[in-house]
Amino acid sequence: MNWGNEDLGATELHTRNISCTNELLKLLKLHHGVPEPEPVVEEPAVKIEAAIRALIKKQKREADAKSRARQVQLGAARGEEIIKAVCIYFDISRIDLISPRRDREVHNPRMVAMWLCRRLTTSGYPTLGRLFERDHTSVIHSCRKMDLLISKRAPEGIKALYLKQLIADEIAAVEVAA
Fold first, then answer.
1. From the CB of residue 98, how many other CB atoms can be counted at a distance below 10 Å?
2. Is 2 in contact with 21 (CB distance < 8 Å)?
3. How does pLDDT run across 2-34, given as a tens digit for each residue?
């Protein structure tokens, strides 16, 4: 074995440590009858660290993907629950709420439902647009309009805030029970 004092890189140092360990194991077996364990694999430490980092990254990606999938499922489920609550509160059917009708009896509850879905779920505008069978820009307009009505303290805005509080309390109660 060469025990030179030259500057060693991490890989060379690791390789030398492995060969020293294997030599010591052979000497123990020869002189003391200690059974020889499996030889230490001569794989550079750098490769091992890189493999560990890659494994950790992969696990994080998988966990993030599962979390996003769960949020999308949860958002869709809550969106349906919010639509149902709005339909009950305003006494209209889901079919009317989703329909292309634009009269005030349907349009205002639809705006409230879109605003509530945006505020109480993690769903984005395109997802909510699909939920309401509309373009995402319709959802954006509804949310902005409801924010304006709330800031002006209009009756529709007050109803939306009241309904938001009711639904948020119900969601919190369900999450605590689960």
1. 17
2. no
3. 555 455 555 555 556 666 666 766 666 666 665
Question: For residues 138 and 129, is the Cβ–Cβ distance under 8 A?
Answer: yes
Q: CA dist 127 to 3, 76, 143, 160, 178, Å?
A: 66, 8, 14, 21, 26
Contacts (Cβ under 8 Å, ≥6 apart) of 118: 125, 128, 139, 143
Type of residue at 147: D
pTM exceeds cut of 0.70: no
User: What CATH class is the domain 68-177?
Assistant: mainly alpha
Domain ranges of the chain: 10-43, 68-177
Region of 33 on the Ramachandran plot (φ > 0 left; ψ -120 to 50 alpha; else beta): left
